[in-house]
Amino acid sequence: MTTADRAPAAALAEPVERVGRGWTSALSLANGAIWVGWYGPLQILLASQAEDFAPGSGMSKETMLAWVTGVGAVVSLAANPLFGALSDRTTSARGRRTPWIVAGTAGGSLSLLLLAGADGVWTMALGWCLVQLTLNAAFAAVTAAVPDRVPRLQRGSVGGWLGAAQILGVVGGTGLATAAGGVGAGYVACAVFTTLGVLPYVLRYEDLRLAVADRPAWSWRGFAAGFWLSPRRYPDLAWAWLTRFLMNLSNALVLLYLLYYLRDRLHRSDPEQGVLILTAVNGLTLLATVVVGGAWSDRVGRRKPFVIWSGVLMAVATAGLALWQTWPGAVVAAAVLGVGFGVFTSVDFALMTDVLPKAGDRGKDLGVINVANALPQVAAPVLAAPVVTYLGGYRVLYLVAAAVGLAGAVLVGRIRSVD
């Protein structure tokens, strides 16, 4: 029986049939392609443009980069839950999620091409905001496909493969941006890969359809009110959201000024290549643990211990960047961070899907949860810029990042409904 032949109510049912390797691989590739579109700019291209545009603008390159990425993250905060909620209500013949994956990816690729032609801070900021708006539409739909189709005891494994694709997307985006031979060429390369990467999933696999009769009644008040998930009513979801926010804030503080850290603190002659090397080292160790961690969590039926100890390990590695400020220290920290973040990425995703309140709101609720990924991109520049400039530099910045990540690991223990 094909997906199209199933009863429309299947879109809202708790899945029981295990998904195959082909479906998981295609969805993971689509996820990785979206991350290429984000992290080629975030790791290399936006920082290079800020360095080019800062002279004569009245802003330092650090302030300009923080401003542009911060504004883009604000757009992301609204876009992810908004498009997740819209996909929950979509009754297209292509399903609930696929139309948004297609539209979001196409818009993101065009926005990356706009960034390739940016000639100043304003077009740079506009282009990045459009990238965040459109790629978040695709990302919201990709992540919502997991609770739509994957049974609970397979979500750690699937989350592991999505996490592996995520880090490969980060490494691939960084590599494309570095190897393309210029800022404009880097954006074009990321746009092409992002487009091609989603095609196997959207062309080969049919989405679950939502019947018009099953779509919730529309009202602006009800739609807007649905984005508020009461911590009192859903305490486990609130604690899960907070732990993810703190972990991602710690990671964002590490990544934001990495190019400048290598250039200005470690005095690397080729900091762009240094970023690529550290990203590759981090990616290799992450890949060694991300799928294994998720599958192990599925096997033992537990989530919290994995998230707690991976967070502690990440905090230790981040503190190492503050206390061992050498190139070998940075390589070791990147490797250890990869081990911890690999386990965290897969198991925390499964934990999040386990605490979702309603099947009919999976896309919206995951969008609200994904705010915990985007909000750190707003908070990190606000926190990092004054720390680096006035309050002790990179040593203090990375100690703060370690403390934030450790707090996130400890608070996982407050989640009660998940073992």
Features:
14 helices, 419 residues, disordered N terminus
Description:
- With 419 residues, the protein is mostly helical.
- The chain contains 14 helices and no strands.
- It has helices at residues 21-53, 61-88, 98-116, 121-149, 155-179, 183-204, 220-225, 235-256, 258-265, 271-300, 304-323, 327-354, 362-390, 393-411.
Topology diagram in text:
Layout: H1 21-53, H2 61-88, H3 98-116, H4 121-149, H5 155-179, H6 183-204, H7 220-225, H8 235-256, H9 258-265, H10 271-300, H11 304-323, H12 327-354, H13 362-390, H14 393-411
Helix pairs in contact: 1-2, 1-4, 1-5, 1-6, 2-4, 2-13, 3-4, 3-6, 4-13, 5-6, 5-10, 5-12, 8-13, 8-14, 9-10, 10-12, 11-12, 11-14, 13-14
Order of helices and strands: HHHHHHHHHHHHHH
Share of helical residues: over 70%
Give the overall shape, derived from the CA principal axes.
Answer: globular
Distance between the termini: 35 Å
What percentage of the residues does DSSP assign to strands (E)?
under 5%
Question: What structural class do helix, strand and pairing data support?
Answer: mainly alpha
Main pleated sheet:
none
How many DSSP-defined strands?
0
